[in-house]
């Protein structure tokens, strides 16, 4: 008796279904990132939020303060998808501006297929600027004011 065992990568697509390609990324994924994400999460942003850069594949894989934005092969588990679905604490895009279910489905499909992405480049460190003088103006760092005892 002979047994055959087939192994598939996590998130593998159904046989016969075409895998998303670079063209899929350019038509479905990049426009959403450009429209909704790059303002706050790119190297060109004035102050990149949460240490997350989404303008390169390396940046998406590295992620930010909450971890990797995408995990290839695990679309529904990826933080970017959870944020787009407004699950948990992170809700992106902000201001209750949810993206459509079709957009979320495109991201899940793209990530499940391995997240093909033509963008090259290394992750640049997000420069965090700490203004010590501004921090000293916070109420808990100011000297106590003299107060008259109550009557």
Strand content: under 5%
Name the average pLDDT: 82
How helix-rich are the residues, as a percent range? Answer: 25-40%
Number of strands: 0
Largest beta-sheet characterization = none
The Cα radius of gyration reads 22 Å
Account of the 3D structure:
The chain has 151 residues and is mainly alpha-helical. The protein has a domain at 22-117. The protein contains five helices and no strands. Helix 1 (22-36) packs across helix 4. The N and C termini lie far apart (96 Å).
What's the gist of this structure?
28% of the residues lie in helices and 0% in strands. By secondary structure, the protein is mainly alpha-helical.
């Amino acid at each position: 008796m002979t047994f055959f065992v087939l192994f598939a990568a996590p998130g593998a697509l159904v046989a016969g279904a075409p895998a998303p390609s670079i063209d899929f990324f350019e038509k479905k994924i990049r426009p959403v990132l450009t429209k909704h994400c790059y303002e706050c999460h790119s190297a060109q942003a004035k102050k990149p939020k949460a240490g997350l850069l989404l303008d390169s594949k390396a940046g998406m894989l590295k992620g930010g303060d909450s971890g990797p934005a995408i995990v290839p092969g695990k679309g529904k588990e990826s933080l970017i998808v959870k944020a787009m679905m407004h699950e948990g604490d992170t809700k992106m895009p902000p201001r209750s501006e949810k993206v459509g279910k079709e957009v979320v489905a495109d991201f899940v499909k793209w990530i499940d297929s391995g997240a093909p992405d033509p963008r090259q480049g290394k992750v640049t460190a997000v420069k965090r600027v700490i203004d010590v003088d501004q921090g000293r103006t916070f109420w808990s760092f100011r000297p106590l004011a003299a107060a008259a005892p109550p009557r």
